[in-house]
Here is the input.
Amino acid sequence: MTQEDKKRPINRLQSMYALRAYVDKIYTAGLKAKKEGRPVAWCMAEGWAGPILEAMDVETVYPENYGTICAASGASTPFLERADAEGFPTHLCGYARNGLGYAALMRDLGGEIPPEAPAGGMPKPTLLLASGMACDARFKWFQAMGRYLDAPLWTLESPSPGAREALMDGAYERDVNFLVEELSNFVAFLERLLGKKMDWDRLDETREGTKEMNAVWYKVNQLRKARPGPMHSRDFWSSMSASMYLGATDPEVITGLYRNMYDEVKNRVDNKIAGINSEEKYRLTFIGLPPWHSLGFFDQLAERGWNFVTEAAYHPLKPFDIDLSKVSNPIERYVRSRYRGLAQSIYDLYKPEEAAEIIEEVKRDGSAHRVYYRGVKEFQIDGAFLHPLLTCRAATFALPLVQTLLMEVWKVPSLVIEGDIVDTTLFNPAEALKKAEAFEETMDHYKKVRKEEGLGW
Amino acid sequence: MVVKASQGLTRVREIYQDRPLRVRELRAEGKKVMGYLCIYPVLEMITALDLVPYRIFGDMRETITKADAYMPTVVCPFLRSCLDLGLKGKYDFLDGVVMAHICDVGAGLAGIWNMTVKTPYSHFIDTPHTIHETAQEQQKGLLKDFQKSLESFTGKELSPGRLKEAIEAHNQQRALVREFYDLKKLDPPLISGTETIQVMVALMSLPVEEGSELLREVINEVKERRDGPPQKAARLLVWGSIIHDTAIMEMIESLDANVVMDDTCVGSRAYFPDVKLTNDPLEGLAYHYLVELQCPRTFKESTHGGTKKDYMTDLETRFSYLGDYAKDWKVNGAILQSVRYCDGHGYEVPGVEDYLASIGLSSIYLEHDYTEGGLAPLRTRVQAFLEMIS
Here is the structure.
């Protein structure tokens, strides 16, 4: 630990810096591709297209990630204001508003990058790739960008069945077939657009590479169960983007960087070094999407002994083994290596007898409360920081229910602090800090309650 | 036996004021009532198994209290209100609920309702967002699962024959609704936008045959009426998110405007195209309930997989039906409205405005918070808009 790190409230991992810097490559690579006349796709992060686009030599740029960069660098205001002026309601996704405003300014400039764009900006795309996964913004935003960009748009579907419905006979196989068809159609579209054939061998290589990368990243995060928590959420957020956005481009390099991180975190675990430079008084989980524009707020909490040891979003799935030797279709190999049905996921996480009980419970009741945020027990969480976002329905709508279930199932209290992913005017750090200070008494109280109830921590 | 005391528009108003009126009677007679949210659950499958479909609405005149424990204030207030009413026992007469992937919060509500309101039966249809062939196949598979689920719930088989009969019955109602809407092509329209809402809500509170019978009475009554809406300068199309309470229409029609047409889901969206009768009835239903319903939750484009893009062509593909409505109903202005926090409609607004401008139709966008009080400040804006278009 350097002298400088000792002064900082959060004990940043050295290995994080290389991963964070890696993400800047998205933008330099995008600009270079444009200059060289190679295709550039603006994509939503949706888990499927990256390796396919990589195998077709398409450079990918992520306006969603760009929204976080604009927010973190304080550059989002002109883009947000322009989106408002274009008539898009202010409650829409902050990333989307940022992206729409950017696209509108780009159109004004005849396709050139707006001069105020941070990180060099996003070049005009050859292709827009939307997604039906996770939230409506992922395809409505990109559809709306047709007002400013004449790039063809493809929307990749992704099933999101209800819990009970996912367990119906044949449901998983039907969803696999759906994904295989969707991705096959997407490949056919790319071949028409780009006038070249898919490199299936390269897709298989990338698939294997990203599998290994996610497995290492998963292991890094499992180490965070240790006490004191060795890695703060700020390091997680700075490190996750590499695998999300560049995992398909350089899986070996990123795997190597995650291995470095694993070694560093393991060393901290072995030597009981915390992710904060204060005594760990409270272990927190962050639920929602972070306030990218105000991450320094967490430094103030760290000074009070708040160690954010895990998060509810962006984590890689638990790795699983699957025999694909008899699957001849490369797209199907790809889908089966990534799409884990609900039943399989439950068996991955629980012993067979308990998994069978949970599955019966879901079939009967439509849900199983005991699975709810089991991470809270594994990571021995004292409090949940819930961050309702005024512009993100998908990340916010369930938070009151989460708050209720965390208390009912695990006797873990929640602190609710409203804000936004991009818009700084919607987050009040001073007020948030006051609430946090008061919340400490609540966490102390429920530590006692959990002990009395034999919950173990 | 229940004696029907009233008919036509009087009966409509009775049902509008007390929606569960008839279904409670039917339930007492042994019928089962299946609640449904939005227009994506397949009503024909419910009807075919002798269940009574009953649309779930919120109540913009009731303060949301219980739902605060489960849904934050920054989501669709209509959906919050639906949950609130469920938690307050206002839907205790439902034997089951069917919901679909209508939007982020709507999909989430399905799980929350299951955990908290605990209606005895529930099913969620993960309706795809796109409409091309692969999505249609997926939709058909999802409907097969819905069929299995309903058969298990009722203990009855959903035969193709029963399903075809149900499709015909619902198509008959669709045709009647279109005939009803034709009455608004006249100047002045024979029926107001406010009354239209009452009629549509009544239809969504009755079994299909009873609803159709009531609608025939209404159509005959309205054709003969001498007390219809007065002629007004503005003939408006109202587009946007759900309107099931007359308050918005009353606010608009209290000014120099008649609402002669709508593109909303308690209106034309639910009724305008028929379900095609196909050899396998699920094919026609899958197609209708994915491709033909007009709602921003579905991604539509001029050419699937096209390598060229043109914005105006895209708008024409997505919104030309609005141009047809405007022409056929002689509309001279459009009000685009949405509940606050409706993302689907929110992203759509500039595109719809652009399309309407391209066909020479002025429009205004209003956002409201799904309360009666919240409409008052909008009245001034509507008035100014009407002055502009006149």
About this structure: The first strand of chain B starts at residue 32 and ends at 36.
